[in-house]
Specification:
The chain is mainly alpha-helical. The protein is built from ten helices and no strands. 78% of the residues lie in helices and 0% in strands. This is HTH-type transcriptional regulator BetI.
């Protein structure tokens, strides 16, 4: 019988091992046995908590999405002003948070995006993630722009954030967070200047 309170610890341990495995060998070669070995547990523990590798990938992506939400939320709560620009910059910064641009996180996001095209549960997660970003961006832009312009600006900024992140992930070099922020801020200022 498992010890009381072990489930959250075990789940976190297995998610961390999954991130490490994907970083080391990629999603295709990150077998249940490999992940279990990194976590120092038996293969059966993964089946017990996640059913299969897809369940573990889904839980790992939920973990990364929660880290993203926490990074954005913390920045927004720390704002000293309630301006759309401040909120939008906080969203940009949260998307380029260390939790999202580390090697393991980036490789896992890339594997998730590829897998989401074939697995309905992962596709749903991806839609939630996309909608959350777009909706939050649009809400802030709409504070100063008409709705059609706010939607346009939000789609552009969401695409820019994803594009900068993707180029950084595929570059093979350390992610240049400062450069990504500067480019995104520049686009943000161009859109907000339309409100004047």
């Amino acid at each position: 019988m498992p010890k009381v309170g072990m489930q959250p610890i075990r789940r976190s341990q297995l998610i961390a091992a999954t991130l490490e495995a994907v970083d080391q060998v990629g999603m295709a070669d990150a077998s249940i046995a490999y992940i279990a070995r990194l976590a120092g547990v038996s293969n059966g523990i993964i089946s017990h908590y996640f059913n299969d590798k897809n369940g573990l990938l889904e839980a790992t992506m939920r973990h990364l999405m929660q880290a993203l939400s926490d990074a954005v939320g913390a920045r927004r709560r720390a704002l000293r002003e309630d301006s759309p620009r401040a909120h939008l910059k906080a969203m940009i910064d949260g998307n380029f948070d260390d939790s999202q641009v580390s090697g393991p996180a980036m490789k896992t996001w890339l594997a998730f995006w590829a897998s989401s095209m074939h697995q309905p549960a992962l596709r749903r997660l991806q839609r939630v993630n996309d909608h959350r970003l777009y909706s939050n961006l649009c809400g802030q832009f709409h504070r100063v722009l008409p709705l059609d312009q706010a939607r346009f600006a939000a789609r552009g900024l969401a695409s820019l954030i994803d594009g900068l992140w993707l180029r950084g992930a595929l570059s093979g070099e350390a992610f240049d967070t400062e450069q990504a922020r500067r480019i995104a801020y520049d686009y943000l200022d161009l859109q907000l200047n339309k409100a004047r």
